[in-house]
Amino acid sequence: AAMSRRRLQRLVDSLGRSAKHFNKGEVECLIKLFDTLVAESSNRFAAAGFDRNMFRNALHSMFGMTDDMIMDRVFRTFDRDNDSCISVVEWVEGLSVFLRGTLEEKIKYCFEVYDLNGDGYISREEMFQMLKNSLLKQPLEEDPDEGIKDLVDIALKKMDYDHDGKLSFMDFEKAVRDENLLLEAFGPCLPDIK
């Protein structure tokens, strides 16, 4: 069921303000894309928006994401009200940062994705989980976990400015500002250039 023209216009106007990296034409296209994807889904939640699987499929097909754990975290980051469903507003506002965010917005977004338990820090365990997940398994290695532990140590050495054994937002932000490549240090959670 496509939304009425008036409702669409109102939504485009309000999202044009809140999703500030898109112009109104782009906002309208994203709303229509959302509607199309929702209509194609046979899911009972679909009226309200994307559930986890639909969102994962979109991330995979549009942005080439493959890491399940990271896709799950991206879902939670988009899903602002934690209702396990991504509404059209969450979709457009999320994509605004995801596709065109400033460095500052992307730093906040990546930090949120990597802070698995939401306590405001990226802990050694969280780094280990994410790196273990995103690195290819080497069958010949005696203990692949050793290599990952080394990587975690290197990351902490480079990024943990206050030496408390975990990354606060300030640590992460400073590290990324000094070296932009560290933005996605713990797994690809932004679209690739294509």
TrEMBL record:
List the SUPFAM superfamilies hit by this protein, alphabetically. Answer: EF-hand
**Entry keyword Repeat:** yes
Question: Which InterPro entries does this UniProt record tie to the protein?
Answer: EF-hand-dom_pair (IPR011992), EF_Hand_1_Ca_BS (IPR018247), EF_hand_dom (IPR002048), Recoverin (IPR028846)
* Boundaries of every EF-hand domain copy: 66-101, 102-137, 147-182
Q: Which UniProt keywords apply?
A: Calcium, Metal-binding, Repeat
Q: Does the keyword Calcium apply?
A: yes
**Top-level taxon of origin:** Eukaryota
Fetch the SMART domains from UniProt: EFh
Task: Note one Pfam family from the annotation.
Answer: EF-hand_7
Recorded GO molecular functions are:
calcium ion binding
- Name recorded for this polypeptide: EFCB1 protein
Native organism = Chunga burmeisteri (Black-legged seriema)
**Encoding gene, per UniProt annotation:** Efcab1
